[in-house]
Amino acid sequence: MVLNPTELITSDKNTTVKLVKALLGQARQRNKHGQTVIEGVHLIDAALRSDYPFVQILLSESAHSHPEVQQILTRLPTYTPILALSDTLYESVRSLGTGIDIMAVIKIPTPSLSMMVDDCLILNDVQDSGNVGTLLRTAAAVGIHNILCTSATAQAWSPKTLRAGMGAQFALTIFEGLSVQDILNNVQTPLFATSSHTDTVIYQHDLKQPIAWIMGHEGQGVCDELMQCATPIALPQPNGQESLNVAIAGSLCLYETLRQRNYS
């Protein structure tokens, strides 16, 4: 059975419309309400495949008849509220360009950090949403499920990071807003971090045991407090570039870890 929208919204004064605009555009509002917005069929499909609960679905009036939207609607729990917006109103709300006009409001998970003895990825003030999303997507791909984010890291559940992660967030356990001390107190796994101050390249390290990889701020790198507790590793750059983008560096580290464990 395909669920039908319960009402058609035409005014931008509608409470839900105002909330969705705020969630799409403001980190402060996402923190205040503990909610975010996923846009488009791909992200909604990723959430459905992970049995992730929806607060509600919004779609444009004309999108309701789209085959992919119909397929999404048939997979929703029957209690999911569905609101249809006039095409003009939906266009004024969305943050994506032209596409299939459907979005969902979801709750942002807030897991409690406990002692960590398995593989994990630590994002130490990585500030670009695209970099964070890429790192989350790579971590999910190689099977690292725990992500620890210090307080200045870009929001893992912001709409921009969700798009960059292509739904990887739904396969991960993400701890946000952590202090460096939170990490040092709870992560028992050996810390590894890329550094320009060592000559020992990644291929000389044994990465077969559980590892906590630290990826740092795009300009300043990993903070001194974490670096002092970590094993520094170098990524070879024979052509002498000053540094690698943090998402590229992180992906190389994660895939070398995977190679040593499964493909050596």
Secondary structure layout plus pairing:
Layout (H helix, E strand, L loop, with lengths): L6 E3 L5 H11 L1 H7 L1 E5 L1 H9 L6 E5 L6 H8 L7 E4 L1 H7 L8 E6 L12 E5 L4 H14 L3 E5 L8 H7 L7 E6 L1 H7 L4 E4 L17 E5 L7 H4 L3 E3 L12 H18 L1
Parallel strand pairs: 1-4, 3-4, 6-7, 6-10, 7-8, 9-10, 9-11
Antiparallel strand pairs: 2-5, 3-5
Written account of the structure:
The longest helix is centred in the C-terminal third of the chain and has 18 residues, at 246-263. This protein is elongated. It folds into 2 domains: 7-107, Ribosomal protein L30/S12 (60s Ribosomal Protein L30, Chain: A, 2-Layer Sandwich); 120-263, SPOUT methyltransferase, trefoil knot domain (Alpha/beta knot). The mean pLDDT is 92. The protein has 10 helices and 11 strands. The chain is 35% helix and 19% strand. The strands form 2 sheets. It has a 6-stranded parallel sheet. Strands 1-4-3-5-2 form a 5-stranded mixed sheet, with helices on both faces. By secondary structure, the chain is an alpha/beta fold. It has helices at 15-25, 27-33, 41-49, 67-74, 87-93, 129-142, 159-165, 180-186, 224-227, 246-263; strands at 7-9, 35-39, 56-60, 82-85, 102-107, 120-124, 146-150, 173-178, 191-194, 212-216, 231-233. Helix 6 (129-142) packs parallel to helix 7 and helix 6 runs parallel beside helix 10. Strand 6 (120-124), helix 6 (129-142) and strand 7 (146-150) form a beta-alpha-beta unit. Residues 14-93 form the MRM3-like substrate binding domain. Residues 121-255 form the tRNA/rRNA methyltransferase SpoU type domain. One of its GO terms (molecular function) is RNA methyltransferase activity.
